[in-house]
Amino acid sequence: MAVAFFYLFSAVLIASAFAVIVSRNPVHSVLFLILAFVNGAGLFLLAGAEFLAMILVVVYVGAVAVLFLFVVMMLDVDFAELRQGFSKHLPVGAAVGAVVLGELGLVALGWQSAPGAKEAAAAPIIAGVSNTAALGQVLYTKYFLFFQASALVLLTAMIGAIVLTLHHRPGVKRQKIEEQNARTRDNVIEIKKVPSRAGV
Amino acid sequence: MSFSTALAHHFLPETILALGVLALILIGAWRGTRAFGLVNELAAGLLGLAILALFFGQTSEASLFEGAFVDDAFARFVKVLTLVGSLVTILMSRDYLQRAKLGNFEFPVLVVLSTIGMLLLVSADNLIALYLGIELMSLALYVVAAFDRDDARASEAGLKYFVLGALSSGMLLYGASLLYGFSGTISFDGIAKAITGAPPLGVIFGLVFVLAGLAFKMSAAPFHMWTPDVYEGAPTPVTAFFASAPKMAAVAITARIVFTAFPGIVGQWQQIVIFLAIASMLLGSFAAIGQTSIKRLMAYSSIGHMGFALVGLAAGNEAGVRGVAIYLAIYLVMTLGAFAAILQMRVEGRPVEKISDLSGLSRNNGTAAFFLAMLMFSLAGVPPLAGFFAKYYVLLAAVDAGLYPLAIVGVLASAISAFYYLRVVKVIYFDEPAPAFDHSPLSLRAVLAVSTLFVLGFWVYPAPVVEAATAAAKSLF
């Protein structure tokens, strides 16, 4: 049963990944990307990594792909123009790609692991400890450095995004609540006595 | 030794910088646009403090965080170089950025964040630490490349660097995944233990991809394509940063990974490193000949110098690593000095960057002309200046290891590259004077003078650098 689902998820994943790059409409591409993510999450579930599966759906489908969809819909990117020169560079690119693919095929066919590699890489599923709890136990202890370094990477990304996009425009009228609250009748209203029949 | 004391002894520079940079961000956010000067000075102070922590800290070896982080003499040596590169960049950048209306506090913050990445990279002892270090370093570099966001060339430089950097990270990760798939472990030590006898094709593939990713970061040919455009487009202090600190970290981690993860298959990685070295040295010497922009010239010069540093690595022994360490130290000083001179090239308030703008500098400003000429002689490797000894140590190691063709190509490339370095000297001394440069700030003149002094005096008293490099090389084996 699991094997059948493995092949189902894998086949749909590969097909949708292929559709991402060949579909003409960028919105279709993003939708296929979401399909690929969901199938990837299915594969994680089959492997017993339910936490990763949920994270993949929440972060990639829920946030990244939807954001991407908004960008594609709202920015009028001319994808036909981006594809210009595609046929010109195709022969060289295809040749390099074919060589790399052939080499990778050789690697995959002749693959052999070091003795004991499987045992070293195996992460045993401890009875009674959920996936999430097991991750929590190592994330802040064994992998503390990685956790903090990732946090710094994200901080850098945040600062970078602000530096490169935030514009301080002079002369923009912003609401200043404290000034509004500080207004009194005396300092904003000027009373002028207009004599009749004389005008201002 | 308990974990916290180990942390205090061996993780102090990183802790200082990481906590300090958070404080800097707070100060910057609090004071807004006026914060640049203060944050700049504080960032320089932090980097200086980290250098002091390294100088007066532990001299023992330690492995922290379950083998993810290693602190040894090699790491400390390169960390000092990296920190010096970042510190000098920050000191030199202030005047330029303020005049270009780029005086935002984020610049020093990003430089410090990038430096933390470099320190983690230099000490990385497994594949995840390696990758996180590289990403932290590079992400900040992409942003500072495009720091002048209203300038089309700077934006192009940032984008180009980002796209190619992402590609190289992808290659590195793919190689890392192959290595993990083979050995079942991410630690360099574990990978070394798993490789017994003739390595299967998968391991060689992983090795090639990892080395290609690292060669991108140190801009060794044939992975150098981004370098000239990024160096030319980015603001000049940023170019000075690119040419100094990140190269130290990238070369250091390459040395560490080949000697700790692949000591059993020296022959496999040696041929890759030899190819990278030859290609970089030749490209660095031929492609620079036709350049008119001094920043592009320095870009090709840095590619060539990375080739020479790799010659030491190719030797594959302790003497070679010692040569690499000495080369990095001397290259750092020469490059920072040259950029201090380039940053002084400013006519009527506007920065200029053509080689012809240096015409007749000897008659406008004799001292600066002499300093720059000495640095150019040193970059070319003219004895008895420091640049000669840098090349001497790596070529000696290559000859001792029996790599005669590599050493011969090195000498030839050095002779060819002397042409364009000496052309700069000729322009400075024998051409009709161009408009004189403006009076430059003290920091730039000081950096130029100190680096020239180092270059001139190295042969008199080379012991501190050579001894530290010897100890550093010893700790890697």
How confident overall, as mean pLDDT of chain A? 86
Strand content of chain A: under 5%
**Structural class, from helix and strand content of chain B?**
mainly alpha
Range of helix content of chain A: over 70%
Q: Can you put this structure into words, describing what you see?
A:
The complex is a heterodimer of chains A (200) and B (477). Chain A has 200 residues and is mainly alpha-helical. Chain A has helices spanning 2-22, 26-46, 50-74, 79-82, 86-109, 117-121, 131-139, 144-165, 177-182, 185-188. In chain B, helix 10 (226-233) packs antiparallel against helix 11 and helix 15 runs antiparallel to helix 18 (386-400). With 477 residues, chain B is mainly α. Chain B is 75% helix and 2% strand. Chain B has helices at 3-10, 12-31, 36-55, 73-99, 106-122, 127-145, 152-183, 188-194, 201-217, 226-233, 236-243, 245-260, 266-286, 294-315, 318-343, 361-364, 366-380, 386-400, 404-430, 442-457, 463-475; strands at residues 62-64, 69-71, 346-347, 350-351. Chains A and B meet through helix 5, helix 6 and helix 8 of A and helix 5, helix 6, helix 7 and helix 9 of B.
Write the layout of secondary structure elements.
The complex is a heterodimer of chains A (200) and B (477).
Chain A: H1 2-22, H2 26-46, H3 50-74, H4 79-82, H5 86-109, H6 117-121, H7 131-139, H8 144-165, H9 177-182, H10 185-188
Helix pairs in contact in A: 1-2, 2-3
Chain B: H1 3-10, H2 12-31, H3 36-55, E1 62-64, E2 69-71, H4 73-99, H5 106-122, H6 127-145, H7 152-183, H8 188-194, H9 201-217, H10 226-233, H11 236-243, H12 245-260, H13 266-286, H14 294-315, H15 318-343, E3 346-347, E4 350-351, H16 361-364, H17 366-380, H18 386-400, H19 404-430, H20 442-457, H21 463-475
Antiparallel strand pairs in B: 1-2, 3-4
Helix pairs in contact in B: 2-3, 2-5, 3-4, 3-5, 4-5, 4-11, 4-12, 4-15, 4-21, 5-6, 5-12, 6-7, 7-9, 7-10, 9-12, 9-13, 10-11, 10-14, 11-15, 12-15, 13-14, 13-19, 14-15, 14-18, 14-19, 15-17, 15-18, 15-20, 15-21, 17-19, 17-20, 18-19
